[in-house]
Amino acid sequence: MAAGTSRRRVGSAALALVTALTVAACGGDDSSEEGGGGGVIVNVNTGGSATFTRNFNPYSPNVQTGAAGTIYEPLFFYNLASNDEPMPLLGTDFEYSEDGRTLTITTREGVQWSDGEPFTAADVAFTFNSLMDPAFNRTNIPLTSAEAIDDNTVVLTFSRPAFRDEWNILGQQMILPEHIWSEVEDPANFLNENPVGTGPFILTEFSQQTFLLEANPNYWEEGVPAIDGLRFTAYSGNTAANQALVAGQIDWGNTFIPDPENSWINIDPETHHVPTISVYITDFVPNLEQWPTSDLAVRQAISLGIDREEIIENVYYGTARATNPEQLLTPRDDALIDTEFEYDPEAAREVLEDAGYTEGSDGIYVDPQGRRLSVTVKVVTGYTDYIQALQTMQQDLAEVGIELEVEQVSFQQFSADRQTGNFELLIDGQGGTPTPYHLYDRLLNSANTAPIGENAASNWARYSNPEVDALLNSIAETNDQELIDDAVDQLSQIFVEELPYIGLWQNPPNVTFLSERVTGWPTDDNPYALPMGWAVPDLGIVARSLQPVE
User: Fold this and answer.
1) Distance between CA atoms of residues 157 and 146, nearest Å
2) DSSP 3-state assignment of 157?
3) Pair (341, 404) in one structural domain
4) Strands 547-548, 518-519: parallel, antiparallel or unpaired by DSSP?
5) What is the rounded CA–CA span in Å between residue 280 and residue 136?
6) What is the Cα–Cα distance from 48 to 70, expressed in whole angstroms?
7) Which residues contact 374 (CB under 8 A, 6 or more apart)?
8) Pick from 537, 521, 460, 459: nearest CA to 65
9) Band of the pLDDT at 50, cuts 50, 70, 90?
10) Tally of CB atoms within 10 A around 319
11) Where in the sequence is the domain holding 257, given as residue range(s)?
12) Looking at residues 210-228, what average pLDDT do you find?
């Protein structure tokens, strides 16, 4: 692949559950499906506790998990778990101009859409031109035009240097068929119930409880996929999913299980696997537009008052890792990490008292206006690890004079409230980006937020700081690594000082693999993709790599 000069090379309750799971495992249930081609249908649970919605619109913030990377493909695959060069998919080559304002992409020949129509560079140009509507340009790609100059060449032009947008452009944008989407009058609200893509799978069955993706017979890579399909099943929460998991009904699990070594691996270490690859951090997301979480003293006291190590050991059995106020990952960003979180209840109280809070008769602080320091955190119903961790944090924060109320909501409600700012505090996962810059841009860029009541793209906390925007822009417009490193360092220090998001722990992936019928899963020794079944587009990369056991 030729590259331009700007190219980057490229507890008791838990024990009871473990016992229940082990008993269930002893009575295993082989409910696997056989595909029509003699292969296997891999059973997947992506971890959501809601029923499915037949929405396969990649523009939609509520697109059904399971479409990206399987039905639809980007131009290249960027492996966030390693430093591999981008893997060609619908694109085979790309090159930036010297000033970073032009990107020329060569597209793959001989590709068909799943309805038999030919894929060409015109589909790529159409997809990117649709981003001229800000509602669809959720990563703020500075695009001014996209032109197909022949059947296999696309030229994108930008209003500013777009070096740092490479991953979003080439690795995250799903390519759509012009012959279908050009006829859609309202693409924002189009459910796209019968999606047509270039990916290795096609949708063949759908209900609120389960849907089936079968192998695409017209897929451009010969012999791929080797499995017959993927069946996704919805469960009411982690407990129900885990019971199905150990009964042999799920090949690819994506839920938290307590004590995974004893409750999963030890069933049969040869076939029951738990990868540890993760590029995500669990945060408290504070609403910076309203009290009490808009008060820096409150955010500092919450952070100081949480015993993170207790949660890592007692909830996650040591599979999670410590994180830091800079929101940097270990081991990837170890060389950049300068700070660590403290657990200091006395300091938490001092912070509040220095800010004018006084302790009430019930032990909960009140602010100078007499408002009681009670904070409500929203969590998705069925996310048992988060819920158990919040129970510990309720006790921790009560000791420093903060009442933490827990509100469990459906995933759909959580997603809607996160977008519109209808919350005081959320517990949520952040990350999945190739560099610290990309995470800071997603979480802090004022272009990625919106007023309360309107949909924010990714800056859920509604943080806004002109200095931060300027630093992010300076990174986006240069290919000078020294300047990039200096700006990232400044951004990390602002993160430490202002706590726009409160880091809690670096997530375990919460993934289980069963290799009784299929092999080829990513491992810690071969992390060819992220292992999570909801990762985009890694889900498709893993699925196309699986091989039936002979």
Assistant:
1) 7
2) strand
3) yes
4) antiparallel
5) 24
6) 18
7) 292, 364, 402, 403, 404, 405
8) 537
9) confident
10) 21
11) 12-65+197-277+509-548
12) 96
Q: How many residues does the chain have?
A: 550
Q: H-helix or E-strand containing 388?
A: helix 384-398
Burial of 83 (0-12, 13-18, 19+ CB in 10 A): exposed
418 located within any domain = yes
- Same structural domain, 51 and 161: no
Q: Respond yes or no on whether the N-terminal peptide bond of residue 118 is cis (omega within 30° of 0).
A: no
Indicate whether 458 and 538 sit together in one domain. Answer: no
Cα–Cα distance, 298 to 310 (Å, whole number): 21
Q: Assess contact for 176 and 60: CB atoms under 8 A.
A: no
Answer whether residue 19 shows pLDDT above 80: no
C-alpha 219/C-alpha 261 separation (Å) is 38
Contact yes or no for 507/280 (Cβ under 8 A): yes
CB 356 within 8 A of CB 316: no
Residues 231-270 have pLDDT tens digits of 999 988 888 888 899 899 999 999 888 888 898 999 999 9
- List, for residues 486-537, the tens digit of each pLDDT value: 999 999 999 999 999 999 999 988 899 999 999 999 998 898 999 999 999 9
Q: Please write down the HEC assignment for all residues of 64-98.
A: CCCCECCCECCCEECCCCCCCCCEECCEEEEEECC
Q: How far is CA 322 from the centre of its chain?
A: 19
3-class secondary structure per residue, 204-238: EEECCCEEEEEECCCCCCCCCCCCCEEEEECCCCH
- Token pair listed for 461: 């906390």
SS3 at position 54? coil
User: What pLDDT is stored for residue 138 in this prediction?
Assistant: 81
166 and 220 both lie in a single domain:
no
Give the 3-state secondary structure of residue 548. Answer: strand
The answer to whether 396 and 42 are in contact (CB under 8 A) is: no
The answer to whether 24 and 247 have CB atoms below 8 angstroms apart is yes
Q: How many CB atoms lie within 10 A of CB 306?
A: 26
At 26, list the tokens: 């002893």
Extract the tokens encoding 410. Answer: 């459906």
The DSSP output letter for 167 is I
Q: In terms of domains, do 389 and 535 share one?
A: no
How many C-beta atoms lie closer than 10 Å to residue 361's C-beta? 6
- Residue type present at position 95: E
The pLDDT of 190-207, averaged and rounded, is 97
